[in-house]
From TrEMBL:
It comes from the Eukaryota. This is Xylose isomerase-like TIM barrel domain-containing protein. Pfam families: AP_endonuc_2. Residues 27-327 form the Xylose isomerase-like TIM barrel domain. InterPro entries: IolE/XylAMocC-like (IPR050312), Xyl_isomerase-like_sf (IPR036237), Xyl_isomerase-like_TIM-brl (IPR013022).
């Protein structure tokens, strides 16, 4: 029987260059996480600090550590700013130079999956000219290209719509892309934050919501229920909430970044784990989760991918704190939705007070 398994993104446990990757992996395992979405920034930081910039050697060590901890590397991510580029020379460069290196690293890490977020390159900051196209045929052809190369090497790709993406910013648009690519090794990542963050939330509004938030989200989820998505095409899901801000995220807000989409600025600073209403969580994450698990019938990796200003806290207990919050959220969701085969156990490492772990291997 396929059951849900808890995963977490490496960046969701602390910032690179502040909190070391081995320490974060150890805290994830100690708190009961079984899988890790490995961010390249974490791998790069570990390589620069410990292996003189050798990403391959760092990957080998990360794989060994995860094997010792009993954790699976779900994917390497993000292979970003790729599909739909108007600069076709840059598109070719990413495929011929960057992608082969990622295949090498992913193989060394022991994962067969690479995550591709929807392109959010935005316009040229100097001229304002667009740098990506919304032409679905171009986007699909670009992604078919890497899917076909990946198939020859034994790799899968998982595509995720970001709610601030240039052209693909809803689950519907990402599903159109996945259907268009039509390759067995190219699937979908559904993210509660990006779904609700696009149609329900508006951090630039005083209410934090779009004008018809509840109705629009309900309609979106109804379309998702009726889309007849094969659960096998959903490679994993992410469950995350967002913080209701005290003031609209405009040019006066401390999270504002010139030229950056408002939802991206909000995402980078104010994600929360589900059931953290005491911290300001307000998105209807349970409604989204019920659609994923009860209606679509998804079972598999459930990743807690959180970005937050709290990750920059230099306190050495920051990774442990986020790991604890994440696994608590995961088990609350499992109890609420009655996930079959779901067990909640306290790892031996947590039967005594946990201590921060900062190691160099």
């Amino acid at each position: 029987m396929v059951i849900n398994r808890p995963g977490i993104a490496s960046m969701s446990l602390g910032r690179p260059w502040i909190h070391d990757l081995p320490g974060k992996l150890m805290q994830a395992a100690a708190h009961g996480f079984e899988g890790i979405e490995l961010f390249f920034d974490d791998l790069d930081c570990y390589a620069q600090r410990t292996f003189n910039g050798d990403h391959l050697e760092a990957s080998v060590h990360v794989r060994r550590l995860c094997e010792r901890l009993g954790m699976t590397i779900i994917c390497l991510q993000p292979f970003s700013m790729y599909e739909g580029l108007l600069d076709r020379a840059e598109s070719d460069k990413l495929v011929t130079e960057k992608l082969p290196r990622w295949f090498t690293l992913a193989r060394a890490l022991g994962t067969d999956m690479i995550q591709v977020p929807s392109n959010f390159l935005g316009p040229d900051p100097k001229t304002g000219a667009p740098r990506t196209t919304g032409d679905l045929s171009v986007i699909v052809a670009d992604l078919q290209r890497i899917a076909d190369l990946g198939a020859k090497e034994g790799f899968r790709f998982v595509y995720e719509a970001l709610c601030w993406g240039d052209h693909v910013d809803t689950w519907e648009a990402s599903w159109d892309v996945v259907r268009g690519v039509d390759r067995p090794n190219f699937g979908l990542c559904l993210d509660s934050f990006n779904i609700a963050g696009r149609v329900y939330a508006d951090p630039s509004s005083p209410t934090g919501r779009t004008p018809n938030a509840a109705a629009d989200l309900a309609a979106s989820l109804e379309r998702l229920r009726n889309a007849k998505i094969d659960p096998a095409k959903i490679f994993y899901v992410q469950l995350v909430d967002g913080e209701r801000l005290d003031a609209p995220l405009d040019e006066k807000h401390p999270f504002h970044v010139d030229g950056q989409p408002v939802r991206m600025s909000w995402s980078r600073n104010a994600r929360l784990f589900p059931f953290e209403e005491s911290r300001g969580g307000y998105l209807p994450i349970v409604d989204v989760a019920r659609t994923f698990f009860d209606d679509l019938g998804f079972r598999g990796w459930v990743s807690l991918e959180l970005f937050s200003r709290t990750l920059a806290n230099p306190d050495p207990f920051t990774p442990a704190d986020h790991a604890r919050r994440g696994i608590d959220s995961y088990h609350k969701m499992g109890r609420l939705l009655n996930w079959e085969g779901q067990t909640e156990k306290v790892p031996a490492a947590l039967k005594e007070p946990s201590s921060p772990v900062q190691h160099r291997l």
